[in-house]
Amino acid sequence: xxDIVPDIGGYLGSLKERSCRLEEEKDAYSRMSLMDSxxxxxxxxxxxxxxxxxxxxxxxxxxxxxxxxxxxxYNDTLGHQEGDACLYRVAQAMxxxxxGGDREIFRYGGEEFAVVLDGVPLEHAxxxxxxxxxxxxxxxxxxxxxxxxxxxxxxGVAADVIEQRLDENGGSLKxxxxxxxxxxxxxxxxxxxxxxxxxxxx
Length: 202
Fold this sequence. Notes:
Helices cover about 40% and strands about 20% of the residues. The chain contains five helices and six strands. The relative contact order is 0.15.
């Protein structure tokens, strides 16, 4: 019995090491599932999780929704490979412009992105949005189908306490901002605007 004790100890040590490696791999896969492989920023799933956490806390936040102007034209003209490269550069430029751990950018889908600003008031969020717009414009990525001649983005900004509500079937959660502003949405491009999305009272 004495002779096999060291072997048992070595076996248990090996099991512990394997268990640690499995946990590390699990964590790595979990992180990968929340990242967009094209742009290198968090994806829509990560955004949904972030909004759910904020909704549970009834946290005051600002949300910036944006998209790349005339991106379909860009793709159709220059091809999908150039389109992918464009989205990567745009995403990285915006991520580099955001400062602080409470400011996160996500790929919402296609050429659309979302920026969550935790605890940032509307007035400051508008400045952040304008800074993002300028950061992308300063990239100077040629866009043959745009009146500007280069890639631009348009952004909408909302701010208040985020809420969660069930859809009419009692299923997945929907998120909205309760806003008092009566500002209208504009159809112009390459600008920052206040977006109003008001849910009816429950």
